[in-house]
Specification:
- The chain folds into two domains: 200 residues, HUPs (Rossmann fold, 3-Layer(aba) Sandwich); 88 residues, Tyrosyl-Transfer RNA Synthetase (Orthogonal Bundle).
- 53% of the residues lie in helices and 5% in strands.
- It has 13 helices and five strands.
- The strands form two sheets. It has a three-stranded parallel sheet with strand order 1-2-3. It has a two-stranded parallel ribbon with strand order 4-5.
- It starts with a strand and ends in a 7-residue tail after the last helix.
Length: 317
């Protein structure tokens, strides 16, 4: 079982391509909406996300695509896992600490407990392999800890998952601040994140405004994170080796790199965006309903085993 619990609509194409390759040869679960912050404007997000999954090449006949909120077992297992999770573990989660520092007393309990929901998403499906970026390793480590602890205390219940982290493209950084990951949830996301459904003009504008380092030489260099990030994106989208890319831009200025990177990105996204627009509502509804049925059948078995092992046996059988 191979699970990707969520997709970030960003330019992490190295991870995306590796996920599709893995998913084509394994039983896979792809789920969308989480119960982190529910807003009216998010009502269409699960459908948009499902279209993205399908447009990038996920085959619903091979992989299970569904909306998380259609399978109540996710919320139920989260509560059971809360019984073995520790406050100190959740307080160490980087995402919570960052939000707490910015919002102080306005941080919701849902955000604090969000990593446990992520763990439930994964463990429900007896997942062997989870594709994650470098920045998500902490959440997967918590998932593994909870699975090991639950199995120790209540008997064998969950598969302990392993991470799948590609060597290139696992952590694409923000165009506005190369010290931060490229993320749609970041405050600077409008300037720093290339969204999969961005218009041509938006892509060009974002790359034109992308931060660069001091110096003029265009080459891969981790000590110069801004230019290294732009070159990494170019490498992922074109498939060209680093020496060839450096030769191509030798003697050129940053403007040429940004212009070419914008056009490469636009061409990369164009067929994908056409496929997104080509998925009609009726077909999408059918895929999501069938996916939810398949996911629920698996989730019920795992949830039932977890309850039984904890001794939570009610009158209903």
């Amino acid at each position: 079982m191979f699970t990707w619990e969520t997709i970030s609509a960003r330019c992490a194409t190295g991870l995306l391509c590796n996920v599709i390759t893995k998913a084509s040869s394994a039983s896979s679960i792809f789920t969308g909406l989480r119960f982190r912050r529910i807003r009216k404007c998010w009502r269409q997000r699960p459908r948009e996300l499902a279209r993205i999954y399908l447009a990038v090449g996920i085959d619903p006949n091979v992989s299970t695509v569904f909306v998380q909120s259609d399978v109540p077992a996710h919320a139920e297992l989260t509560w059971l896992l809360n019984c073995v999770a520790r406050m100190s573990e959740l307080e160490r989660m980087t995402q919570f600490k960052d939000k707490a520092r910015k919002q102080e007393e306005n941080v919701g309990v849902g955000l604090f407990d969000y990593p446990v929901l992520m763990a439930a998403d994964i463990l429900l499906y007896q997942t062997d392999l989870v594709p994650v970026g470098e920045d998500q390793k902490q959440h997967l480590e918590l998932t593994r800890d909870l699975a090991i602890r639950f199995n120790r205390d209540y008997g064998q219940t969950f598969v302990v998952p392993e991470p799948f982290i590609p060597k290139v493209g696992a952590r694409i950084m923000s165009l506005a601040d190369p010290a931060k990951k490229m993320s749609k949830s970041d405050e600077d996301s409008e300037a720093g994140c290339i969204m999969l459904l961005d218009s041509d003009d938006a892509v060009r504008r974002k790359f034109k405004r992308a931060v660069t380092d001091s110096g003029t030489e265009i080459r891969f260099d981790e000590s110069r994170p801004a230019i290294n990030n732009l070159l990494t994106i170019y490498h992922l989208l074109t498939g060209k080796p680093a020496p060839e890319i450096e030769d191509h831009f030798s003697g050129s200025g940053y403007a040429k790199l940004k212009d070419e990177l914008a056009e490469v990105t636009i061409e990369f996204l164009r067929p994908f965006q056409e496929r997104v627009r080509g998925i009609d509502d009726d077909k999408l509804d059918q895929i999501l309903e069938q996916g939810a049925e398949r996911a629920e059948a698996i989730a019920k078995l795992t949830l039932g085993r977890a309850k039984a092992n904890m001794g939570l046996i009610g009158a209903r059988k």
